[in-house]
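Question: Send over one sample?
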Amino acid sequence: MNFLAHLFLSGPPHSTPYADVLLGNFIADSVPGKQLENYPPAVQTGIRLHRAIDTFTDQHPVVRRATQRLRTAGYGKYAGVISDMFLDHFLARHFSDFSAESLPDFTQRVYFLLTARQAEMPLRVQQFLPHMTRHNWLLGYAGLDGITRALNGLSRRAVVGSGMETAVEELQANYTAYEEDFRAYFPQLQGYVADFLHQSIC
């Protein structure tokens, strides 16, 4: 769900396997189990990276604290999904703190690379990629309106009563707390990903 963070963490753009790792990281949620073996090695690295990021995030105490806050607010099993969206919001909002590239330039470059590889993606991803690029989801995450739209879309695909469509109200009510969670967690995730890629590609 948190496309921006996954795409941003796919490695230095100048690295040789970057486009493959980016592709794998992007499609990973639609590649179950050992189906990753159907892809070239560097794409497999991207899929494994995505799974490693998810595991690191789910187990991180700061993220668990944020997720528990959301559960307490009534979002139950969807707390993790909502937390991921909040993290993308803060990454988008503070993108210049983590990248010399502007968020608009990053999003357009990534859309171009992904669209060029669209035929290699699982069908489900092929179908939503044009919608993602046309409506510029990644840039939209920087604003509360964009996060609201994303959560509304997720709510329509979830069971009735998930409450995700109201989660921005929780974000606004406890904005500083969630922002502090992001600031504490994200640099640690960056360090973890750098080590993962170094060991996987070197």
Observations:
- The two ends are 29 Å apart (CA to CA).
- The first helix runs from residue 3 to 8.
- The chain has a mean pLDDT of 93.
- Residues 48 and 196 are 10 Å apart (CA to CA).
